[in-house]
Amino acid sequence: MDLKHDEGISVRKKFSKNELSSKEDGMGQRSEKNQANNLYDSLDKKRDASMVGLSYLLDELNKFQAFSTKMNELISRNMDQVIQLHERDGITFVRIKNILRFEAQGAYTRVHFTNYSVLISRHLKHFEDQITSDFFCRIHQSHFVNLFFVEKYLNQDGGQIQMIDDSLIPLAKSRKKEFFGAINKYHNSFIFER
C-alpha cells in the first residue's frame, strides 16, 4: 500500500491487484467468522429461550398432574359413596357419582341417571340424609342435585338450573344463596393454586 501526496492536497490509497485480492480474502474470512459467531450467538439465544419455554411447560405439566391428583382424591372421597336403592325386585347398590339428581314425587323419590330413572319408595329427605358428599345440594323442596352435572344457571322464571341432560329444575328463592355457596365451593375444590 502506497500513500502519495498529489500536489499536497489529497492523500489516496493505491493498492496493487495482489494486495486487493488478499484484502478481499481476508475480509471474506473475517465476515464468514463473524457470520458463524452471529449464528452461534443466535442459536445459543434460541436454545436458552427454548430451555426457558421447556422449563415453563414442565412446570405447567407438574401443576396439572398435582391438580389431577387432587381432583381424583376429591372425587373418590366424595363421590365413591355407595347408596342403596330399594326397588320391588331387590336392592340396587349405586355410586352417587352416577346420579344426576333426586326428585321428590309425594312419598316416593325418582332417582335420575344420565339415561334412565327409577322410582323408589323413600322420601327425598332419606337420600339427603344418607348422602355425605359436598357435591350434592338441595335446590328446591322437590330437588336434590349432583353439582357435577349442573350445566348452567338460567335467570328465567325466578331462577332455574339446567342439567347436562337438558332438564330444567326450578331453584327456590330461599335456596339460591345455599346453591351458589355450594356451587362455588364445588368449583373452588377443583381450582389449583399457582
Automatic annotation (TrEMBL):
Chain residue ranges for the region called Disordered: 1-38
Residue spans of biased composition, Basic and acidic residues class: 1-33
Q: Which Pfam families match?
A: LytTR
Keyword list, A-Z? DNA-binding
Q: Which SMART domains match?
A: LytTR
Q: Could you tell me what this protein is called?
A: LytTr DNA-binding domain-containing protein
Where are the coiled-coil regions?
A: none
- Highest taxon of the source? Bacteria
Domain HTH LytTR-type: residue ranges? 83-185
Q: Which PROSITE patterns does this chain map to?
A: HTH_LYTTR (PS50930)
Instruction: Please list the GO terms describing molecular function.
Output: DNA binding; phosphorelay response regulator activity
Q: Which InterPro entries match?
A: LytR-like, LytTR_DNA-bd_dom
Which residues constitute the signal peptide according to the record?
Answer: none
